[in-house]
Write a structure and sequence with these properties.
Number of domains of chain B: 2
Number of helices of chain A: 24
Helix content of chain A: 55-70%
CATH topology of the largest domain in chain B: Alkaline Phosphatase, subunit A
CATH architecture of the largest domain in chain B: 3-Layer(aba) Sandwich
Number of strands of chain B: 12
Oligomer: heterodimer
Shape of chain B: globular
Largest sheet of chain B: 9 strands, mixed
Distance between the termini of chain A: 25 Å
Number of helices of chain B: 11
Number of strands of chain A: 4
Chain lengths: 467, 376
Amino acid sequence: MPDKQEIALMAHLMRRAGFGASREELESRAGKGYESTVEELLHPEDQPPIDNDLLFRFMPGYEMAGAPAINQGEWVYRMINTQRPLEEKMALFWHQLFATGNSKVDNPPELTVQIEMFRERGLGKFRDLLVELSKNPAMLYWLDNNGNHMGAINENWGRELLELFSMGVGNYSEDDIKEASRAFTGWTVGSKIPRNPLGRYHWNFEFRPEDHDYGEKTFLGHTGALDGGDIIEIVADQPPTARFLARHLYSFFVADEPQVPSWNITPPNDPEAIDQLVQAYNDSDGEVRSMMRVLFNSEFFKKARFSRVKSPAELVIGTARLAGSYQGPRPGYDKLALESAYQGQELLNPPSVESWHTGSEWIDGGALVRRVNFAANLLGDTSQPGVHSMVENLRGRGALAPEEFVESCLELVGPLEISEMTRNELLGQARTGGNLDWSTEAEAAESEKRIGLMLALIAASRDFQFA
Amino acid sequence: MATTKKDTVLVVLQLTGANDYLNTIVPYTNPYYRDARPRVAIAEDEVLPIDDELGFNPNMGPVKQLFDDGKVAVIHGIGYENSPRSHFRSMDIWHTCEPDIVGTEGWAGKVIRDLDPSGENVLKGVNFGQGLPRALALRGVPVTSVSSLETYGVLSNVPGVGDGREQILERFARMYSPAVGTGPVMDYLGQTGRDALRGADIIKVAPEKYSSTIEYAETPIATALRDVARVYLADLGTQVFYTQHGSFDTHFNQPPAHIKLWTDVSRAIGDFFDDLKEHDAGDNLIMMLFTEFGRRVKDNGTGTDHGAGGVAFVIGNQVKGGMYGTYPSIRPEDLTQGDLAPNYDFRGFYSTVVERWLGLDAVPIVGGKFEQLDFV
């Protein structure tokens, strides 16, 4: 039987590498050991994928859906039901980094295609991912590369590739942007035939040689008839790229960093951690899986419990998984996606290419009220299967005294670490009813109600806002 | 500090989904209109005529009445160049005043910041609806977002809370109280939680204080405008209200859908202003209505597709009623890709309201100087 510390560490890993795990799953994974769980997570291909045949049979609208709410709902389904947690979490990471939004793309199935690409490529080599990204139709359209022509460049993609997706500001010149843009001329979007006469056109990547600038270019000191692929090769070898990616991984998986636009003037919170991740990048020719292995097995990761503010997606999906009410095809996944949107993170529709601001900037008055009410309503509802099994677990522990009552609840929703201030209130609440009593049906019903309220109060706490 | 003059108040009503300009202010005697709309035209004898050329949609009776009373300004041909015909993109442009880049700062959020720079009143801006529209999004500016006034609040629906709610809220307040040495993020969360609790606490007096003989309809827009009236009449210092109704995206089977939309919106607006009149409170408030773009001139058989130029409205006692600007030509050769060419920049419309009604400098809010109108 794994001890408390092992469970707590495993819960931390599963919150970060996935969207949290039930008590049963934590015990089973902790039994296998931390490092072998990390290794399993790093190889999602060894686990069964979502059964698309089953999914589309029950939810036919999900297949190449063309309405944002449905595409979002489909992704939420995958995030909740996946047996490859890190694959989905990496897809969310890349979505937040390579922020592409339906507000402009206005073609939701193409965004779903982009997310699927992140699933497939998200743990591979960064340079390969950047090449796929450069050919991704939603991205090409989002950053106007379809308007980037020989002799009349559009710099949008060239600029953001360097500024937001690889190196960060301060590491290249305006001329480098222009030369990179020239190299990507002719990389554009073609239309496939729509599925039905009134349907949307699906896009594909098209290279048009007649629109490509084959002339000589000089980019970051390299001269030649460079094309987009050469630009990616050069970019991927730049030391700032490794550092930039390392910092993004740290901020998403380890602990909140300052907002990205300040990175060129604000040093990382933990420079040594970034150095370790950069080293992993350099040792592996930029393989993301290798960086993640170092990250999850590091001391800096293990020490970083509850040092990130949960994103709305993490809060909504993590809580829904804990409540256990969403398993397999059923209505309501689009509502969870909407909830995330109402809390400030509309999946597939980031506010701009600069993505969402994270950390404490997830929180404003309206968002906090929604976060608190959503989590408290779900975890306070003892008819939810996951909550019901928490009640049963507590019932099995007998007539718990208030202190044990509080500790047991915290253990079952996390284990969650809380401040003294929160603990005092939870204890105060527990003491108003004395020991949990299961002796009669009426007492048991009262105890169940008290557990629901306790869980709601925990879900409403400041501490619950952190992952 | 006591002031004798009351603060001016703005209500923004967003008609989501692109309202059809041609069937809202109908060019009912124009033969090109008949030609372009064999299936979704409004009959000449049905419109509520303004003059020999234009008339209101027949389902806009209450708005037409306000117009006849001189309280409605109709803003013709509103939009911006190179209309993208995408709902999402266009709504973003209207929300952020950024037609060329993807903007993140909402114009109404900037208004709220400038009205209350210290963020003293958490109810300076109130949104009724689910989630915050980007128009209200601005870092550091607290906006209270209410889906329903009846159920709004922290932990308002927790199962089984019953009579224990007060006690639970007290615990919540203490869990979010300031503490030494927990760091800036915890402090910020605490402050935000306490602000939200305070906002909910203040706003809950609105339904208690309110009484009226007006019976609003049981429609979402009537409910939302009644909530606006209740908070406005409670005098909580709110200066910007925001709500929306839709969907006006009438590609298919437009006539019955558009009838219902305007019947509901128009009646709700009529009741809202009657309500203010009953409370003698109509002089400090104006309402602006906008939509992301108008719809295609030629119908598609049962409905209309995405267009460009549209129509906006401003309503209130202090509004100089009438028509502003010119209706864009609907002759086929004057259309831009089949759509009405906008001839008035929406940022001028915002500027007029921001400067002349709210008394703020519009330039930083809308991103430049644009032609203003004389409706206020």
